[in-house]
Structure formats: structure tokens, C-alpha cells
Backbone:
């Protein structure tokens, strides 16, 4: 099992880890370390990028994945070298990308909270927090007209951000999370630590991603459109202010 140090602090961009294994799969060669600050892609959030300095080499990390409890750091073939096994590496995450990913992910949670608070019949079931078109998908079995909620949602998000609500994350367990969010239980991975993320006084959501520690770090968030997806509705949003 890889210790997931990125869960401890979003704003830790440098750390160390010992290389335990090299391997290959369909994505290419990878390193496995005893611990990592690199976020592996999943939960609607892209992977971190950066590099690991090992034995005098700056090894680029182009992708990070999670498999059977271990984090795979994918590296170029030119750096696939058995000499790294057992060596202590200096990990460095791309800070700009990490902070953007955290902002996008927390913004998605804020969208979820505000929308479901305005209409309890809308239940968040999926998030896509990539910069190329982030959205949150809601179960909408009763056919709620979501477009009528957009203006009110944007106003509420602006208020929440202005009030600088705190964002916190705590470890939990699957039974607790299943009771808190029964509709999301089927989507919660069993091979990752169970965690809940709380924004201000909103009802917590299960999440293993990286987040800002305060809504003031978001800048501003705006819902841009709502699109029907079978029984669901997809609500797209953007960060309208770079930080």
C-alpha cells in the first residue's frame, strides 16, 4: 500500500519517498514508492504532474494512476532503471497545476451544495473537474427546470466565497459515508481511504481529491449552462478569475 500523503495537505508540493518497485503496463513504465504527494487520476480529478529526483536524475512524472492500493508514477522509458529501487527520491509536484485542480474540484463541490440546497430533488452523483469543461451531474428524476436555478445559484456561490467559508477533510469509513450519502455509495471506491469533505456548513460529500482550504482561494465560480442527460442534468461551471 502506498501512503497517500497528498491527503494530509493540498499545499505540500515537495516531499520524499523511497522507490519500492518498477513495473510496466499498457500505459508504460512506472515507479511505486512507499509514500507520495502525487495525486493519481480519479474521482473526476486529473493526475498531478512533476518530477522525482533520484540518484541525481530528474525523472519526469507524466501521469499518476492508482491500482490495488498502490500509486503508479509513470515515467519515460529513458528513465526506466532498476538502480532506482531502494533509493530515496525527492518528489516535486507542479504547484500551479495542483492549485488549479484543487480550485476546480472544490468549485464543483460548491456547485453541488448550492444546487441541492435550492432543490432537494437534485442529487449530485458525478463530477468532472478537469479544466477543459468542468461539470457536476445531478440525478433529476422529477424533471426539475434547473435553468431557473442558475442565477440564484451563482448569487449564493458569490456570497459563500465572500464569506470565506472554510473547507475541511476528515477520514471516515464506508458505513458512515453510505449513511450520509446513500445515493453515492455505489460509486465510492473500496480500495482507497474513505474521506469526507465539508464546505462551510453544507452537508459533507465523500471525496478523495485535493481541495482548497478556504473558499476565498477559488476567486469566483459561475454556472454557465445546464444540459439534460437522460434522467440526469449536467451543470457546467467555470472559474471566472485566475489566481
Residues:
Amino acid at each position: 500500500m502506498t501512503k497517500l500523503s497528498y491527503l494530509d495537505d493540498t499545499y505540500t508540493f515537495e516531499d520524499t519517498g523511497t522507490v519500492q518497485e518498477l513495473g510496466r503496463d499498457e500505459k508504460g513504465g512506472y515507479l511505486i514508492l512507499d509514500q507520495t504527494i502525487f495525486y493519481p487520476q480519479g474521482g473526476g480529478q486529473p493526475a498531478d504532474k512533476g518530477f522525482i529526483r533520484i540518484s541525481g536524475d530528474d525523472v519526469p512524472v507524466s501521469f499518476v494512476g492508482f491500482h490495488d492500493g498502490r500509486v503508479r508514477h509513470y515515467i519515460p522509458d529513458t528513465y526506466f532503471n532498476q538502480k532506482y529501487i531502494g533509493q530515496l527520491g525527492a518528489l516535486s509536484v507542479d504547484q500551479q497545476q495542483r492549485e488549479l485542480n484543487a480550485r476546480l474540484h472544490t468549485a464543483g463541490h460548491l456547485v453541488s451544495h448550492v444546487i441541492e440546497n435550492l432543490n432537494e430533488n437534485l442529487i449530485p452523483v458525478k463530477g468532472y473537474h478537469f479544466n477543459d469543461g468542468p461539470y457536476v451531474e445531478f440525478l433529476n428524476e422529477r424533471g426539475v427546470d434547473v435553468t431557473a436555478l442558475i442565477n440564484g445559484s451563482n448569487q449564493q456561490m458569490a456570497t459563500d466565497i465572500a464569506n470565506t467559508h472554510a473547507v475541511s477533510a476528515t477520514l471516515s469509513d464506508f458505513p458512515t459515508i453510505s449513511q450520509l450519502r446513500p445515493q453515492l455509495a455505489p460509486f465510492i471506491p473500496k480500495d482507497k481511504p474513505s474521506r469526507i469533505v465539508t464546505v462551510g456548513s453544507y452537508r459533507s460529500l465523500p471525496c478523495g481529491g485535493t481541495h482548497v482550504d478556504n473558499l476565498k482561494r477559488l476567486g469566483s465560480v459561475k454556472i454557465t449552462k445546464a444540459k439534460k442527460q437522460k434522467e440526469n442534468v449536467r451543470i457546467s461551471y467555470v472559474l471566472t478569475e485566475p489566481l
